[in-house]
Design brief:
The protein is an alpha/beta fold. It has a single domain (about 10-395), classed as Alpha/Beta hydrolase fold, catalytic domain (Rossmann fold), CATH 3.40.50.1820. Helix content is about 25%, strand content about 20%. It contains ten helices and 16 strands. The protein has helices at about 5-15, 20-25, 100-110, 140-145, 175-180, 190-205, 220-230, 275-280, 330-335, 365-380; strands spanning about 35-50, 55-70, 80, 115, 130-135, 185, 210-215, 235-240, 245-250, 255, 270, 285, 295-300, 305, 315-320, 340-345. The chain has an eight-stranded mixed sheet, sandwiched between helices. Strands 5-6 form a two-stranded antiparallel sheet. A two-stranded antiparallel sheet has the order 9-10. The radius of gyration is 21 Å and the shape is globular. It starts with a helix and ends in a 15-residue tail after the last helix. It binds 2-acetamido-2-deoxy-beta-D-glucopyranose (3 copies). One 2-acetamido-2-deoxy-beta-D-glucopyranose binds near residues 50 and 128.
Length: about 400
């Protein structure tokens, strides 16, 4: 499946006349990745003294991989990509079937790209005193993410899924490569949200106003970040953010109380103010509860406003055959009633069919980036976009 890189590199080089090599733009690598320079650093975290060992260690720091296009940065605002729960920044690199991923796509478009591992995950390191768990078993990965069409009773739209590369089951080399990149999550959601947000706001202070992308679980974290440092965020882009109001309904549609602050587990700023969310956020259940479109817990009128988050433009999309198609409308309704400026995009309405929850690495991943995501970023940066924040490079 993977091309032996040295052979394909030389095969390519030998077919191109020497003069053209010099004049040509960035040379594609074997899997179509965009040539770039990489810098790695850590942000956030703190030193803590351990009474048992009488020694000091770092905790809650965040790994950042900064990728600069070889042809130079041509966009004023950088991008930061947060991976989904159980994954790492690897998720945005080449796809499991070794095609070009979103990091390369946006590098090619001239963006300065940052891939992070959220705190306590992957290369961000985790002290042994914290508890972690494996959120995604092989069974649930097959059933809900990679081949829901083979388990059509899970949710009605599952049978529409067609875009996963390969068979989407264990034993298929593409599935196996992807699944082996899945690891543990922190049990303590509040610590995860607070520590990643602190690290993100510190990264933003260094690199200047940026767009934050999230997938799934980290949709929650991008909203906390927009509450804590909205002046440093140019926009939020949620690939199926899992910030469903007040409850999780993941795999078998069993509602589990979650996110007591509405769309987050940790405090965010409302107007009128909320001190005790259980008492101050008045709830109401709306809509019919059907397998393909569940009922939602929203704020009872008059809804309180998410005042800081509403300073930042937000886009999110939902794929036709994803598990999220059954409850994404609940998040959209909550954001709209709370005063957030949200563009909610249904991929099927843009003619993009058959995607599941991992659309950004499925067969049509670049079509989605080109037809759905890039146009939103361009609109934001254009004359009709949200207020432009001064990029770091333009200062001093
Ligand atoms: C302090 O160190 C001990 C011994 O290595 C370890 O068991 C304990 O979990 C550490 N405490 C914290 C809070 O990391
Ligand atoms: C899903 O339910 C909401 C109400 O909660 C309703 O507004 C929406 O139209 C429904 N969507 C579909 C596709 O039935
Ligand atoms: C970081 C930030 O902008 N926080 C603001 C959130 O909203 C409250 C209420 O308007 C402000 O007081 C904070 O400064």
């Amino acid at each position: 499946m993977r091309l032996p890189s040295s052979i394909s590199f030389w095969a390519l080089a030998l077919t191109v006349p020497l003069g053209l090599v010099v004049a040509a733009p960035a040379r594609p690598s074997p899997n179509g990745e965009t040539n770039h320079r990489r810098t790695v650093f850590f942000v956030g975290g703190q030193y803590v003294f351990n009474e048992t060992t009488k020694s000091t260690y770092a905790v809650d720091q965040m790994y950042v991989e900064q990728l600069t296009p070889e042809r130079g940065v041509r966009q004023p605002h950088p991008l930061i990509f947060l991976h989904g729960g159980g994954l790492t920044g690897v998720t945005w690199l080449n796809t499991p079937d070794n095609r070009k991923g979103w990091a390369s796509y946006f590098l090619e478009k001239g963006y300065l790209v940052h891939l992070v591992d959220i705190t306590n995950v992957g290369r961000s390191s985790r002290p042994p005193s914290t508890q972690s768990y494996l959120p995604t078993s092989v069974e649930s990965a097959e059933q809900v993410f990679a081949s829901p069409e083979k388990f059509p009773k899970t949710y009605p739209q599952a049978r529409l899924h067609t875009q996963w590369p390969g068979r989407g089951l264990r034993g298929d080399p593409i599935f196996d490569t992807w699944y082996k990149g899945i690891g543990p999550n922190l049990v303590d959601n509040e610590r995860e949200e607070e520590s990643t947000t602190a690290a993100l706001c510190s990264l933003l202070a260094q690199i200047g106003p940026s767009y934050i992308f999230s997938h799934s679980y980290t949709g929650i974290i991008m909203f906390v970040a927009a509450d804590r440092c909205p002046e440093l965020i140019q926009g939020l882009y949620g690939v199926e953010p899992a910030a469903f109001p007040f409850e999780s309904r993941y795999i078998f549609n069993q509602p589990i109380p979650s996110r007591k602050w509405g769309i987050t587990d940790v405090p965010v700023t409302y107007d009128p103010p909320v001190r005790d969310p259980a008492a101050d956020l008045k709830k109401i259940t709306v809509g019919e509860n059907t397998p393909g479109n569940v009922s939602c817990i929203l704020q009872a009128a008059p809804a309180k406003r998410l005042v800081n988050i509403s300073k930042v433009p937000v886009a999110m999309y939902t794929a036709e055959a994803s598990i999220h198609i059954v409850n994404a409308h609940c998040l959209a309704a909550y954001l709209w009633q709370s005063g957030v400026s949200l563009d909610w995009i249904l991929l099927a309405e843009r003619g993009i069919r058959g995607n599941g929850h991992f659309s950004f690495l499925e067969k049509n991943n670049l079509e989605i980036a080109q037809k759905v995501v890039l146009p939103w970023l361009q609109l934001q940066s254009g004359p009709n976009g949200h207020k432009q924040k001064k990029p770091k490079a333009a200062e001093s």
